[in-house]
Design a protein that fits this description.
Porin, 2 helices, about 20% helix
């Protein structure tokens, strides 16, 4: 129970960071007279997960593919840094309607920019977020009589981002490709079975900035 309380507090802290950074960014952004960027991100990769059911893997498989589509806001903090706020939409909606599950993982990334050329920037930096889960564990079938009982779990996400942004001449739109390795700690909340474990994964990100 003590460990769960610590993880719960860390998760709330991570969630608050994803809320606080946009507010600070907006205030900073006003002083820089620069509009925030908006866009859509396509993500695909894989993960080891000894807590949650993966709908694309057979029962008792710890992990599987990872994919999502998200929307984001990116705020300029300085000429060489931005705050990137990522809100997943595809997986929460799909899992909710198709499998009666919740997997929602909003994150905030502090990206530092290095100018490589007039059309290319290097971006890299740390990531922090929160993972929220409601559904069965990895021993479960996705549907049917062999589906095990659902439980609620949450935990912090830590990771990093490394990628390249490719700008066009008009500067109204840019494209970005990068990788995001990450780790999570998940603990059941008010969970009689006391589920707990870890997630390690990596994603290839393709981003369209507007």
């Amino acid at each position: 129970m003590k460990t769960q309380n610590i993880v719960f507090k860390l998760s709330i802290f991570a969630f608050l960071i994803t809320l606080i950074i946009p507010s600070v960014s907006i205030a900073q952004n006003d002083s820089l007279s620069n509009k925030p960027k908006y866009g859509i991100k396509f993500r695909a990769g894989g993960r080891y997960d000894n807590v949650r059911m993966c709908v694309a893997s057979p029962p008792e498989t710890k992990g599987g593919i990872a994919a999502d589509i998200s929307i984001f806001m990116e705020f300029k903090l300085s000429p060489k840094s931005v705050a990137h706020i990522d809100i997943p939409i595809f997986r929460p909606i799909l899992f909710g309607f198709a499998f009666e599950m919740l997997q929602f993982e909003p994150t905030a990334t502090l990206k530092y920019r290095k100018f490589l050329s007039s059309k290319t920037d290097l971006k890299a930096g740390p990531l922090l977020g929160v993972s929220l889960h409601y559904g069965p564990d990895y021993n479960s079938e996705a549907k049917g009589i062999k589906r095990t009982e659902s439980f609620f779990a949450m935990g912090p996400i830590i990771g990093a981002y490394f990628g390249f942004e490719f700008k066009n001449a008009s500067k109204k739109r840019s494209f970005e490709i990068g990788i995001t390795p990450y780790a999570e700690a998940l603990y059941g909340i008010n969970d009689p079975a006391n589920h707990q474990g870890y997630v390690f994964g990596g994603l290839l990100d393709f981003t369209i900035n507007y």
